[in-house]
Amino acid sequence: MRNLFLLLFICIQFAAVAQVDYSLFRRVQKKDSTIKMNVDAVYSRPFLQIGKTPVALGGYVEANSNYMVTNGKTEGMSFQMRRLTIFLSSSIGKRIKFLSEIEFEDGTKEINIEFAAVDIELHPLLNVRGGVIMNPIGSFNQNHDGPKWEFIDRPISATTIIPSTWSNVGFGLWGKYAKNKWAVAYEAYLSNGFDERIINNAENRTWIPASKLNPDRFEESSNGVPLTTVKAAVRHRKIGELGISWMGGVYNKFEDDGIELDKKRRIDLFAIDFNTRIKNKIYINTEWVWAFVDVPETFSQQYGNKQRGGFLDIVYPVLNRTILGFEHATFNVAARLEYADYNVGTFNETGGNIRDDIYAIVPGISFRPHPQTVLRANYRYHWQTDLLGNPAARTAGFQFGFSSYF
Fold this sequence. Notes:
Elements: H1 2-18, E1 25-29, E2 46-50, E3 55-70, E4 73-93, E5 96-105, E6 110-123, E7 126-134, H2 157-160, E8 167-179, E9 182-191, E10 227-236, E11 240-250, E12 255-256, E13 259-260, E14 266-278, E15 282-293, E16 306-323, E17 326-341, E18 357-370, E19 373-385, E20 393-405
Antiparallel strand pairs: 1-2, 2-3, 3-4, 3-20, 4-5, 5-6, 6-7, 7-8, 8-9, 9-10, 10-11, 11-14, 12-13, 14-15, 15-16, 16-17, 17-18, 18-19, 19-20
């Protein structure tokens, strides 16, 4: 009976496909006549629209292979289905929009709602946004789509200090204004925030991404104090874009039923990001972040109260012409420099430097048969030093993969 139902379902699907008029489908790219900025990233994606319906669908996929060696030891080659992300947007009415982003990571190991918000435009400089928002700390968190990058792995500092694709339920305001060669933008939100997992986790260190494991953050705040996120950015058509952002709030549960459990302990993250093009060819993108965490005095020194890190990407298009029959194809060479220090400071007893840091260099090449599809090959080399500064563990290897909007 089960097989019969399955066969019937497949037949219905084929019958439905046979009746679809594909001329009704059209590929649309959300456009903005003004200067593009990171604040536009949430809508600057390709969508598939059916006729004149207000609903549009899109997404991206990325997969890769890994062959890594650490201190001469390897587990061989493996293949990875990194993520499948679905976008669904709708123009509800005049100046009212909805967009959602649902991501399936590592097959279905993780399923996350990364964005699901309604925007109400009162004025170009005053838009109200509410729902599951993407906290705009740094630039990568806003601009994380795989097809936009020439590198397979996401930046270390943007995933292990700033939690990659960090989003929460909240609301706030954003706006943008452009005139001539200049554009300015801002975002300001209140949302649910972090919890004590950032110091109580399996990593045995201050690990901010651990709060992503809290499924209740989409339902309620861990302590009743909103997390505040503010970003301001300015862009010049020829110079580039500079952004400054801050995200901070109380992370611990300091009170329960009126009983004081602990003092309010804060976490504050500051980020600065910049991107530009030199002679309209060489693309440079960089981001630097600082994190300050009020760690209880009872915790050992392996839990850092200060963290810092950043990355620098340089991408140079070697060829931009018809390649293998693909018009306007691009072949790029690229390099990324990375650094993250998870415990900035010195030991109380000796005054020696606390290490727990990682450096990485990632050269690579990429081929874009279409601007929305990229084939990537990276060589990753990084060396990681433990808390005491013992000789670094060295890891090197090759990665091959692709990412594409659809």
